[in-house]
Amino acid sequence: MRVLVACEYSGIVRDAFKAKGHEAWSCDLLPTDQPGLHYQGDIFDILDGWTPAMHTSDCDPNGEGVCNITKDDTSECKCYGATQDGMEYKKIRDILFCRPKDNPHWDLMIAHPPCTYLSVAGAWAMYKKDGSINSDRMKNQNEALDFVRKLMDAPIEKIAVENPISVISSKIRKPDQIVQPYQFGHKASKSTCLWLKNLPKLIHTNIVDKGEFKVWIDKKTGKTKRQSVWIYECLKESKSKDHLRTIRSKTFQGIADAMANQWGGEKL
Q1: pLDDT at 153
Q2: Residue range(s) defining the domain that contains residue 174
Q3: How many CB atoms lie within 10 A of CB 70?
Q4: Does 109 map to a domain?
């Protein structure tokens, strides 16, 4: 299978499918945390099956990655895709892209659209102190919903869109399934909604307890706080609010493995 993991920089889901023998790519505006097939850029550059052409050692002795040829004639380039039979290629912003002629599309996409303006946890920001609507926040939310709709409508046979409890449920449609990390071997609670197209619901693989809670005194406010241990560990690890958001957004390994095992199966 050709698998696209949209809006993922961690490589967790991508590598779970890679381990099953599939051609799995991740895509995000951020660079990947782990080495692997990753396109740093706009997901809509590659939704119809294009991937950056990978260099051969002859073409890229320094191992810099994708081809950055600037001339229109690609005949001298020894990149995979420019020279191999059965491939077609094009350039996007001077980067050579290729896809196989016999299977020009992705077979499966798992998308993790940013939840900043979608999650119900941030619903309070939709209103100003005087009770009026925050027009900037509303605009951002509408753009985020349009992004989700485009992902759901992508020309791919099998699609899963993942998000926490969010306005996608009320503005687009209710999720097909809600899963928890503790259903897949992690002692943590984190409601994860799945909107599925031509995919079965995930079967729980290892149900454990929901994990312990940490109680502590906030040094700034003096108030007592209570959080699950995994969130508390994220807070300790984070360097900023943005960093905390990226840490908490990572897919739990047990859920990623379940996706790869149940939606990818053995190597085809």
Answers
A1: 96
A2: 115-264
A3: 7
A4: no
